[in-house]
User: Fold this.
Amino acid sequence: MTGPSSRLPAAARAIVDGDRRALARTITAVENGDPSVDRVVRSLYRRSGRAPVVGLTGPLGVGKSSLVNALVGRLRSLGQSVGVIGVDPSSPFTGGSVLGDRIRLERRADDTGVFFRSMASRGAAGGVAAATREVSRLLDAAGFDVILVETVGSGQVDVAIRDIASTSIVVVVPHLGDEVQTLKAGLFEIADIFCVNKVDLPGAELAKRDLAELVTLGGRPSGWAPPIVGTSTVEPTGIDELWNDVVAHEKFLDSSGERTRGERKRLSTEIVGLARDHVGRELTRRLERDPSLRRLLDKVVARQIDPRTAADRLVRGRRRGR
Amino acid sequence: MAKARVAKKTPIRVLIAKPGLDGHDRGAKVVARALRDAGMEVIYAGLRQTPEEIVRAALEEDVDLIGLSILSGAHMALFPRILTLLKEEGGRAIPVFAGGIIPDEDARRLKKAGIRAIFGPGTSLEEIVSTARSLARRSA
Assistant:
């Protein structure tokens, strides 16, 4: 592409033109917070926002990686290219991790229509990494038709995928708990689609019934009633239906105006978060050099002033200083 | 060179894979676990990977290092193929180390071909971790 793409930084142009090594390296730099790719990331934003971002979340061991593999197969058979991010936890003790989502991936080694990237959560809570959103945008700008994001095996409050995905699939298996579990706040609130995986196991009908009852108690505020799909990846079952439900939800987002509403909300959260980080970093940098922190600290230790007052003074000092 | 990485403490990314058809992955898992505990991000690609799949994974995951485990005896066919493919893909050379049942004579030839380190049975995990770390640092 000439014209607009010729104004892109070289690495950004390479990514847009399908250079997978450039994509892979830029992802590493984004994960590492490397400032050298700042311009690349900024310049590619405008080229994102086309591909649906489909999140798969749910407790560990429910079969998310196998479902991702099955969906990749389905999408390839439809002629669509797929970028996948598989997030696994980092150790809170050593920072190390074993990223094992890739192990389920079956594709021809020469199929350039699939790009799979494993990502460690690196201390972020909520089920995804801090870099996941920006990396999903890079995959989008690189031209993949669909982006799949597999979260860390989630607990009840790991709902950060909601801030990244246009469609969130919550994956469960039979016998995870009784119907009261489905009423609890958190994970079950974010489902655009419920997927009961391992539907070949006993108890699957009950699990589907419990979820169906949950949905009848009231759908999402948008008016969308999450469908419930039974799937299995052993004897592939329900995969086409699962993808059809994703497509239906994406259509609903467009026809209802929910896509724009959701985007505005997500982007507002992102901008405020980035601004907060920026101000926080600035404050930290300033305080490292600021002797008044030590004086305030002395006063707080001596019980002459309280920590809240000290913090107020630090922030006021910052405003005066600018 | 390696300084920037050390200063920013970004984790080393390493791909652990088993080329060929043997199903004995305990060694690969023990090594993956040890590298994890040393603070590395280990992409575990698992069993029965073709050289093409391994090289593809290494490039997509942008790893600093590749570790191969093999017990089938097919190392003289598979390892050079992996090195060749890596070279063909151009770009920076990703160091490759290996472990498994590899006779000394083969190990000498594989090292000459470009496998950077080969660990036989009984190698301590400390040695594997420190070798992996220095190979990754040098390539960074």
Remarks:
- The beta strands of chain B are 13-19, 41-49, 65-70, 96-100, 117-119.
